[in-house]
Amino acid sequence: MSRVKTAFRTPWFWAIIGIALLLLVNSIKNPAYLAISVNPTTGLLTGNVLDILRISAPIIMIALGMTFVIATEGIDLSVGSMMAVGGAVAMQTLSTLDSNSVGAMFTAIGLALLLAIVLGAINGILVAVVGLQPFISTLIMMLAARGIARVITDGQNTNATNEPFRQLANGQILGLPTSFVLAIAIVVLIALTMRRTALGLMIESIGINPKASRLAGIRPRPILIGVYVLSAALAAVGGLFSVSEVMTVSVGGTGNLMELDAILAVVIGGTSLAGGKFSILGSTIGALLIATLNKTVLFLGIPAAATPAFKALVIIALVLLQSERIRSFAFSRTKSSGTPTGPATPAATESTPVSKEVVA
Amino acid sequence: MSTSRTLAETVPPVADLPESKKAENVTHLSRLWERSQTLIPTLTALVLLFGMLIYAEIAYGRVFHAGTMSSLLVSFAPTIILAVGMTIVIVSGGIDLSVGAVVAFSSVAGVMLMNIGVNGWLSMLLMIVFGAVFGLIAGVMIQYFNVQPFIATLAMMFLARGLASILSTTPVIAPEDSPILLLATDWKLIDGPKVNDFTITPGLLIAVLVVLGGLFFMHRTRMGRTVYAIGGNESSAQLMGLPVSRTRVWIYIVSGALSGLAAIVYTAEVGGKAQNVTGIGWELDAIAAVVIGGTLLTGGYGYILGSIVGVFVIAALRLIITKDGTINPEYLTIITGAVLLAFVLLQRVLTRRRSS
Hints:
heterodimer; A: two-stranded antiparallel sheet; B: 356 residues; 3% strand
């Protein structure tokens, strides 16, 4: 019983319920939705679920980076543009090298990461050393990085051919999309680094109280800069995954409006926007929920441009749930009635967007 | 209050002592310096503006030219309206990222209403109301649920953009007899030779009225002073008994309503065509204008006229880039970002000096 109660209190538990509900809605519309079949021409597995996993890879990457930024009580609004930068560098490099080798792929990935790290360091320095508000420094970077992506490709939607690079999103490892497997590997690697060393705790302590953590001997500057660099680098990796699907970078479209996806995934996963704690597993599941939501909206025939409205409704519901006023209201009701009604409110949240889609 | 007055009376007047006179002078000077310090960014922006205009005149010509000036003013009328709203929000210590998306929703919704036969003037009023509703939701979230302003308005940005896309993903065009098109009539004020006329439109007039209204609101009304007080120190404002909650919600309603108004002016200017992709990046233009104009992002300081100077700086920047032709338009966002960053850094240096 107590285990069930803990599960109800875990934010990502509700995200899993949300994913299940969305898949259920899709299955009702088309009973064969969950079916996985073998594509006769390529010999690979195909199916809607695998599609969801593939498009979730970039979202997992930006959500992971955003998790640590938000844990330090910051925000990184430049992740979407950073995806475009990563994709643009990779495509431009591959189209210049014009070879099908693995070496060309690694050159492209290396250059993309390098530029993203430089831009992320600028973000970090503006926040940690100059002392600007995170949202304004990253807002400027969002503007500038999109411009940089345009400059790199001369404003063109550059495409390139490189078989190994194309395999990132289109290949499969043990039946799962390569990009998803890589994303999970990166998540596990970073989770181990954060939780097996003191790094994760230090990030959280900066988010709780920067002054107190400095007095406790934690130097905030390198950690803050590192967090923004990590976020930018992961966003660039997300951009690589996203462009390798179609081997074209769309300088206006790649990563456009993905900032809210990342923030949403992080908030769904239970990381508070007030900073001070993070949940890597939660953010990953949150990202999977966003990917499922994206696919569901498309599947139900709603224009893709309308998805932001649903995401906005979900995030409004979630931030309201995080607010003191609603919490104290729910808490006092719990006290008076004597039964734990805690789960009732999140359940309502999860069902709201779903029912909205059914109506729409 | 009374005790301090009696204390002051008991202390003998010391004004005739030479040292104290000097000290008073110094405090006077430092106070003057401190006051003008808040004007430094605005003055820098003015210098930059005239520098850019003079450069453009020398390099490309036909800049101080009634035709060029008036068309530039007319095309930046929506930005001027948005900048006024954004100034009020930023002075209160908040931010409104939703303005561009609200413009898109209001214009699409308004034009669709006109197309299904709703009275043109009524639809225009409704466009402002739609904007105000988005502002109201954001304001309530921020004030009563303690949501950070940028998160609340980012959510509104996505909501408005998504709803606009649900309404229509293709451009919708207002009927030809719609009164909204009257707002784009050219009024020739000065009939110069050939195309060198100084023409304004009712839309530009609306923008000027909004600026005047904003000035009156910020400097001559109680609510305007409360906005400054909230931006300066919210808990002090609360302790002084100022209506913080009500004012804060109104700030976002005003910003949303002004976005609706900007949607009207813009839709009129482009001939009644409304699209769901209108206004992408306009929030950044508005924020950049406000910051260049000397309003502190942390709130408490700022002037609407400064933001108007900021809009002109951005307009002059666009003018130079289009006149030049050799500058890749791809660099435009990088240049705007760099200018914005430079002014944010300037603010940072000035505020740091003041606080230390």
